Amino acid sequence: MVFNSAVWQLIKQSDWVSKYIVMLGLFFLSVVCVAIMIYKFMMYRHHQQALILILIKLKRANTLHDLVSIRKEFSDSVGGMLVASTLDEVRIVLEEKKLLIESAGQDAAVVNVNDIASIELMINHHIDNLLLEQESYLPVLGTAAAVGPLMGLFGTIWGLIHCFVNISQERSADIATVAPGIAEALITTLAGLIVAIPALVAFNYYSNELRKIEAKLGECGEIMLLLCKKTLYHKGK
C-alpha cells in the first residue's frame, strides 16, 4: 500500500513548508502536466491524420469548388481551417476585382501577380496563427521541466536546514538521528524530478510533432497557391 510505504511516512513527517508548499505544489503541477499531455496527444493525432487526408484531396483538386468540400469535411482540423481562410481570402480578392470591373466598365476580372502575392502572404499569415494556437500550453510543460527540480531543491535545502536545527537541539549526530532528516529532505528533490523528467520529454516530443504539423500546413499552402494560380491568374497590365 502507498500510504504504508516508507516514502509516504517521510512525507507525513515533513514540516509544513515541505509538505504544503513544495510537495502540494509539485502535485498540482504534475496534474496540470498530465492533463496537457493527454490533450495534446489527442489534438495532434487528430490534426496529423486530418492533414494527411487533406493533402491527398488537395493534390487531386482541380478547381476552387473542390476546396469548398474539403473545408466542410475537415472543418474541425487546422488543415480545414487553413483551407477555409484561403477561400475567404480568395473571395475577398475576387470581390475587390468585381468592384474594380464595375467601376471601370470592364467585362472580365484580371487576377494579377499582385493579387496572387497577397493570397500567398495571407496563407503564410494564417499558418503562423494556426501554429501559434497549437503551441498553447506547451510552455507550461517547458516551465514545469525547469521549475520542478528547483522546487525540489528548495524543499531539500529547507529540509536540511530543519534537520541540522534538530540535530543541534538534540546535541546528537549519530546515524539514527541524522538519516531520517536527510531522507525527509531528499524526498522533495525526488518529487521534483518525477515531475520534471516526463514534462521535459513531453515538451520535446510535442515540439517535434508541432514541426511536423507546420511542414504539412506549408505543403497544403503551396498546393492551394498553385491551384489559385492555375484557376485565377491571368497576365495583365
Structural class: mainly alpha
Low-confidence stretches: none
Mean pLDDT: 83
Number of helices: 7
What is the tally of beta strands?
Answer: 0
Q: Which key phrases capture this entry?
A:
mainly alpha; 237 residues
Notes on the protein architecture:
- This protein has 237 residues and is mainly alpha-helical.
- The protein has one domain.
- Helix content is 86%, strand content 0%.
- It is built from 7 helices and no strands.
- The chain has helices at 6-13, 16-60, 64-73, 78-104, 113-134, 138-170, 175-232.
- Helix 3 runs antiparallel to helix 4 (78-104) and helix 5 (113-134) runs antiparallel to helix 7.
- The mean pLDDT is 83.
List the topology elements:
Layout: H1 6-13, H2 16-60, H3 64-73, H4 78-104, H5 113-134, H6 138-170, H7 175-232
Summarize the structure.
With 237 residues, the protein is an all-alpha fold.
